[in-house]
Amino acid sequence: MERALYGPGGFFLLPEGPAGHFRTSVHASPLFAGAVARLLVRTAEELGTDEVAFVDVGAGRGELLTGVLAALPAGLRVRPYGVERAARPAGLDPRITWTGRLPDGERGLLFANEWLDNVPVDVAQVDEAGAVRYVEVDRAGRERLGAVVAGADAEWLERWWPLTEPGERAEIGRTRDAAWATATASLAAGTAVAVDYAHTRPSRPPFGTLTAFRAGREVAPVPDGTCDLTAHVALDACAAASPGAELRTQREALRGLGVSGERPPLSLASTDPAGYVRALAAAGEAAELTAPGGLGDFLWLVRRVG
């Protein structure tokens, strides 16, 4: 998974970037970037400063960074960082520092939208005898069961994703826990947020979630570098790795940041027809971002630091 996503010729290094293959909340509507901009303003107010950092982890081609900078009010000074393994996109705002490493000791907002689901994981499966084994895969996507899971991986499964019946599968989330803990530790003070496809222990999927996307379509997860490899995140385990974090749905989080799917009053159509059309379009975009059964069910993991 590491090689297929981030190695030479890996998926996330392809020229078209992730947006050429799948759509996230960032691409769904500029309302998302506007909400993140308001969260950044709120973070600055909590820190009592007019100068903060905005760290976009898994920055793609800078779409969220660009949207947030455009939505910020005058007077707030921001040090923007795009943390991404791909090369710096052409034409990116020169204010943005593009880097493959987390900046250390910044004060502000760290935001990771659909990053943790692409942090590589091992997959485990219960064999016919009841033993939990690693799933091995070749470049063509052919699978076989390997060694018995033991040590820290077995302890993680026992605590966070117990497997009992033959055929049951899980993605071992220790790498995601460590990645999130490292990200939050990089902040001196402020707020860290991870937004992702996720599940918690009461509702783990019995056969795992590993899948792939190519050109907007879900495809078999073949680790050849031509498709996204992704698995939902056990965000409750990530939260435990960085104590003090809170979980909420995207619907709850965005509504708290002023994104509502409520339709404008019909009376506006007669007094300001163009304004009514704009407000109606915004309401439709907000409804998509907060819809139950869709983007609204994404989970936000929020951790205040310092």
What does this structure look like?
The protein is of the alpha/beta class. It is built from ten helices and 16 strands. Helix 3 (30-47) packs across helix 4 (63-71) and helix 6 (174-186) crosses helix 7. The radius of gyration is 20 Å and the shape is globular. The chain starts with a helix and ends with a strand. The relative contact order is 0.15.
Number of strands: 16
Work out the helix count. Answer: 10
Regions with pLDDT < 50 over 5+ consecutive residues?
Answer: none
Helix-strand makeup class? alpha/beta
The share of residues in helices is 25-40%
Radius of gyration: 20 Å
- Report how far the terminal alpha carbons are from each other: 34 Å
SSE string: HHHEHEEEEEEHEHEEEEEEHEHHHE
Briefly, what is this?
The chain has 306 residues and is α/β, with parallel strands linked by helices. The chain is built from 10 helices and 16 strands.
Features:
306 residues, alpha/beta, 7-stranded mixed beta sheet, 16 strands
Topology:
Elements: H1 2-6, H2 25-28, H3 30-47, E1 51-57, H4 63-71, E2 77-83, E3 97-99, E4 106-113, E5 122-126, E6 132-137, E7 143-148, H5 151-160, E8 169-172, H6 174-186, E9 187-196, E10 198-199, E11 211-214, E12 217-219, E13 228-230, E14 233-234, H7 235-241, E15 246-249, H8 250-256, H9 267-271, H10 273-290, E16 299-305
Helix pairs in contact: 3-4, 6-7
